[in-house]
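Structure (tokenized):
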């Protein structure tokens, strides 16, 4: 009877898994497509080449972050459709990396075709392709539930940031932004910190909820890893922007000394944001898991308390 129940449960989980993977892939791809469309519209709307380069540098981290999530989410969906358990490790990674590469190539086309004669767009497009491919590779690891939870959490972090940016003006006023540059700088710092902390809390909560709904039990480090996942993806985004997309950021910094300073400040702010989201997400996920754990059952220590001579 027990084996029949286990079979029914696993069959139900198998039916839910592809649907959940497709839903995640759809949201991830929509996010990537929206970021690509927004970046393309912003870049092509500039009046000259210099401002186009600056706009590309501003848009690159957001596109890379979305490409990482879309690559991982798309690869997870493909794995769910081709019965991941029947694949060996090598075949699994081949499927996921190939899926990420295809999605990355499609995303790169949207950037490169802005100006096929400009190497800046080729570099930016290549960075997007690399990000999606790396995201696909991440989906090939053993715990797809953790990767999926991290992807949902990353989408939640983006949603929190988007909502706060929509309400940026009243929030800056709340944080004391006035007519002086000092008050505006202070308010901007508090706004950035609030966005990072709230994003980390959203990451921890969403990743915890996704993993709790998944079939089977996971140890607490997996919850911590899923909660820290969005921060890790943001840190990886910054690494890719500074390496694969370094020439784009460097060229944007050559426009003026002010632009060079802005690029350096934004780079540092993005890294700080990634670290805060990472730690807050991991800690909040662990705390939420701890609150669901009940006390040890009565008599759990009874064997240890038994006297050595009790068998006589």
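Design, position by position:
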């Amino acid at each position: 009877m027990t084996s029949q129940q286990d079979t029914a449960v696993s069959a139900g989980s198998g039916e839910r898994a592809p649907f959940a993977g497709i839903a995640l892939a759809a949201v991830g791809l929509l996010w990537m497509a929206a970021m690509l469309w927004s970046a393309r519209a912003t870049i092509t709307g500039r009046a000259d080449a210099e401002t186009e380069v600056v706009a590309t540098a501003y848009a690159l981290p957001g596109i890379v972050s979305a490409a990482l999530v879309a690559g991982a989410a798309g690869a997870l969906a493909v794995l769910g459709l081709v019965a991941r358990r029947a694949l060996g490790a090598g075949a699994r990674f081949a499927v996921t990396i190939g899926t990420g590469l295809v999605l990355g190539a499609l995303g790169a086309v949207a950037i490169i075709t802005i100006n096929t004669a400009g190497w800046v767009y080729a570099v930016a497009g290549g960075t997007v392709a690399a990000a999606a491919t790396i995201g696909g590779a991440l989906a090939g690891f053993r715990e797809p539930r953790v990767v999926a939870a991290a992807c949902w959490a990353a989408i939640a972090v983006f949603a929190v940031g988007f909502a706060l940016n929509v309400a940026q003006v009243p929030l800056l006023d709340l944080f004391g932004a006035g007519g002086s540059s000092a008050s505006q700088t202070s308010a901007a710092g508090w706004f950035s910190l609030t966005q990072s902390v709230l994003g980390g809390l959203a990451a921890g909560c969403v990743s915890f909820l996704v993993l709790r709904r998944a079939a089977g039990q996971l140890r607490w480090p997996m919850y911590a890893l899923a909660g820290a996942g969005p921060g890790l993806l943001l840190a990886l985004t910054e690494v890719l922007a500074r390496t694969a997309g370094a020439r784009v950021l460097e060229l944007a910094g050559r426009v003026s000394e002010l632009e060079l300073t802005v690029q350096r400040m934004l780079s540092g702010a993005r890294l700080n944001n990634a670290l805060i989201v990472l730690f807050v997400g991991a800690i909040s996920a662990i705390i939420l898991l701890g609150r669901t754990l009940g006390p040890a059952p009565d008599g759990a220590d009874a064997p240890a308390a038994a006297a050595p001579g009790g068998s006589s």
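Reviewer-requested clarification: The first helix runs from residue 2 to 44. The two ends are 40 Å apart (CA to CA).
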